[in-house]
Here is the input.
Amino acid sequence: MLRIVRDDLSCAATRELLALHLADMRAVSPPGQAFALDLDGLAAPDVDVWSAWEGGAIAAVGALRTHPGELGEVKSMRTHPGRLRRGVGAALLDHIISEATARGLRRLSLETGSGPAFDAAVALYRRRGFRDGGPFADYAASGFNRFLHLDLGGADA
Here is the structure.
């Protein structure tokens, strides 16, 4: 059974999965185009992190960053390599979407890369209703990155 918990980043398993995520994003992104948060960034007051656990082992991690203007951003979504294609990432993304909705956010956005290393994640986001759009927050468009958005409701949706 999958258990999703708010994570304070103190667990070695969480830190190891996040280190793997950060290293992989830097390896598959052009210089200056990897926007994955490090541990300090994930510990910021505008970021909440959750981890998913199966049988005492970490299965995935993901975060929600809150921006002004009722905007949420999905950050640091990563499924453990030993838990791929089991619905763990989808369950964690659903949790983040539910949390963003409960907080009254009107839109959930994310920045990701292009190419085969990102295809599975983009497919997951699209299955949950995310659509292509322009840059948001402090991001700038490039030939590598892409932006996806999900309207969560409200007067401006």
